[in-house]
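Q: Got a minute? One more chain.
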Amino acid sequence: MNTDALDDWLALNTALARWNRQLDEALGNWHGLSFADLRLLDQLACGDDQAQRLGALAEALGQSSSATLRQVLPLEKTGLVERRPAANDPGSLVVALRAPGLQSLKVARETAGAICARAQAAGAVARASLRPRAAR
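A: Always. Here it is, folded:
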């Protein structure tokens, strides 16, 4: 059994959880968003017409459609995104970024970028610790 690989994965997951918590706290305090919300808005901003089908959005975020819909609902209530039927498939939903959502994304990316820069600077040690044992 390879416990070194598991131990490294657990350590990486713990480190990411700490940084994600810092992102959630800062984004929540300054912008009323979570890091997951920023990821969703950012993904929409990359799509054609800043909109994506719910299923494609869920896939890009690595979560189920139902989880994505639960995340979209409060963003819709605050006016950052909108849901609408797909033009060529009324049974499918499209989630679209609205102008206030794009503006929130722009300023939230600055906050998140500063935190990620700190994480990246601190990550040199973490990356070195994840190298194979023989390479250390």
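A: Residues 99-129 form the longest helix (31 residues).
Q: Perfect, thanks.
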